[in-house]
Structure formats: structure tokens, C-alpha cells
Input
Amino acid sequence: MNNRIRKKYESLFKKDEQMKLIKSQIELIKMLARGYTLQETADKMNLKYCNLQKRTQLLYKKFGVNSRKELIEKALEQKIIKTSDISNKYRRRFLKYQDADAQPQLIEPLTDLEKQYIRLIIAGESKQEIVKKLHILNIHFCNYIQNCICYKLNAKNILQAAIFAYKLQLLD
Output
């Protein structure tokens, strides 16, 4: 097994220990997670671009990764950064790390239509199918219902709302 494959294998299957990083390395990871380019990061950290490139490559090597996405993923897994440190641009990529332990909170009771909507989402129905089955005017109204559900359950997206509804036993 060549060195590159061995290192990748070890980085994937070794126990995730908390990386020992200095403050500037953590700040660099946060800047990358916020979506800043290397040039913008270098300017904000008062470093030369080539020095920042070297530091980034060292972080990649230390984490055993080859891209910004993998670096952010590893940093999230090891709780070096929080999901709040990630820009909206990258947030969807790391949805599995977002508030996995968040507690459901019911702000307002759900209507019957909203409960039916959640049941259909859980069943894997598309918005077009939901429009037909619930006799809704159009897809835009589906989006409105979805936003209401997310607000009432204090969820960030409809999938999290469905999980919260299930945990709160709102679906009978």
C-alpha cells in the first residue's frame, strides 16, 4: 500500500482524537468555513498569501484531507468549530452536523393541514404530489406551509421539523 493510500486509510479509521491546534490554526479553519478566499483570509490575518497557502497545506496534511470541504468536515466532527462558524454557502453540505442534539420546541400548535403535510414529506412525496393530494393551490403555497411548520417547531428546515414533530408525538 503506498503512503498516500495508507495515510488516507489511517485518517479515516483511526480514533478521532481532539487535534492539538494553536489559536491561529483554529481561526484559519473558521475563516475557511465562513467562505473567505485565501487572499481575503491572508488580508484579515495580516499574512502574506504564500504563507497562508503553506499554513493551509499543513492543516490539510495534519487532518489527512485534500480539500476545504474535508477540512471543515473533520473540524466539525472533532468539535473544533461549530456549525455557527460556517457560512450559509457551506451550511447545506454539513447539514448532518447541524444541531443533531437540538431539542424540539413547539411555539404554536400545528394545524391538521400542516400535520398532513409533514406525514407526506416523511413518506417521501414530492411537492407536486403534495399539491395534488392535499388540494393545495400551487407549489408556492407549499413553501408557505413549510415555512409555517418550521417556524412553529423552531426548526431550520422541513426535515428537522419532521423529526421534531415525531419526537413531540404530534403526528398521532
Summary: The chain has two domains: 3-97, 112-167. The radius of gyration is 21 Å. The chain has a mean pLDDT of 82. Residues 49-63 form the longest helix (15 residues).
